[in-house]
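In the previous lecture we treated proteins in isolation. Real proteins rarely work alone, and many bind small molecules. This record shows how such a complex is specified: first the sequence, then the SMILES for manganese (II) ion.
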Amino acid sequence: MTNLPPEMKEKYEEAKELIENSNDIKIYSHTDCDGISSGAILSSILKRLGKEFEIEIVNLDVLENIPIEHELTIFSDLGSGQPVDKNANNDSKILILDHHPPLRDVNYCNTINYDTYLEINPIFYGFDGSGEICGGGLCYLLAKEFGYDDLSWIGILAAIGDIQNGKTGRLEGLNRTILDDAKELGLLNIIENDLSLYGRQTRPLFVALSYFSDVELPITNNQNESIALLKKLNINTRNPNNDMAVRACDLSQDDKNSLMRELVLMISKQIPPRYMMHIPKLVMGESYEFTNEEKYTFLRDASEFSTAMNACVRNNRPEVALKLLDLTIKRNEYLMSENNDFSMDIDGERAVVLDELEEIAKSHRYYLAKNIQMIGDSGSIIEKDNLQYFDGNGIRSNVVGTIAGMVLSKGNWRKPIIAFAKVSEDNEDLKISLRCSKLLAYDGIHFGSIIREVAQSLGGSGGGHDVACGAYIPQDKKDEFLNSMNEKLEGKLVLE
Ligand SMILES: [Mn+2]
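The predicted 3D structure, ligand included, written as tokens:
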């Protein structure tokens, strides 16, 4: 178990005091699952303390000139990389809980000319902000300071949403400590040595298998081949107990093992020897289940839950995601308490929010499917030596990355795919998203760093994960961007 270094623990004690002594509070959090989770944890803390507060879920560009109008302004899952105190006045108090690379150093708080600046960033203490803890985890550690350990499961939801398990398939570092807290309270199960497939609660196994795309296999985008594979391994496709299609969460360890063995074999036929050592990480990992949630619902699986959170924010409905988390916190609180004197019908209220969420998720899936089909069918993916790209003409910039990830399997999986979209209706600049097979990252290529470098050289900005990242560039720099990326990657992709 990883413990908090004393200097970081001290900052948390200061943060607790800061909140206790403030009454008019504003929270800004990021527009993704991690940011929503962070916001939900902070809201819950403030509600329990009876504080007055407002919360706003924002994109990073909003922070360039953010007004500081409240007694205490809290930034979660963002803030470290933006000039958030530009408009601070004499008695402003600012608290930042962020895991992104910081602009200011750890001693910045001593140089300010206003009341309080407190930034808690794990990078200051030698932690890896992309694999050991995320925004939601940082906010949970604050909740823990108040004794609210029951919020730990949201720290895990945040970490999975942020792909903090990307490198090894399991949560490590401070995330592990949060995991232990959630497990201790009986809020979560860890499923070790699990088959690493998306949709383990809600998708039929053969469908989940057909989405395997880190390496193109006969089963990729082919449900018939997936069914044939299961038949060959003597794995049931129907569950005799409930007469539903078998899902990944139904599998015995023996069945998981034979499926993993077969996948490893299939993958090894497609890739050069130097990548062989990375194959197990593509097919095996840990899964996390929320024990208070019903089986076969997205709420039960951390990864599927995080997708639903993202669907809300990508459709500008963050309030639905926040409401669901708030009610789920209350529901867990109720289930954990001894006295059942709760008068409110939490399940009823939650059912209403879940209906709303289902509507959002449905139209989200439809929007994705429509665009994926359009790009896949129209031959609009253009290949260069070391990359492939498409124009996401008309695609909303906040989903173009998701779409890029999903069309990768329709193009050449051995090369990264880059998508372009207009930033917004009134901003003609280009939003760029890049996705690639995990194998390239395992081989040491960090696309987030590469894309940042190239975007900056063209007067833009960028960054992100090794396998999923993005950038913003001026609208007339598209060709330069492509050429520069293509050059930078020369000799680096050795999947052929
Ligand atoms: Mn984050």
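Summary for your notes: DSSP finds 16 helices and 15 strands in the chain. Residues 34, 77, 99, 134-135, 162 surround manganese (II) ion (CB under 6 Å).
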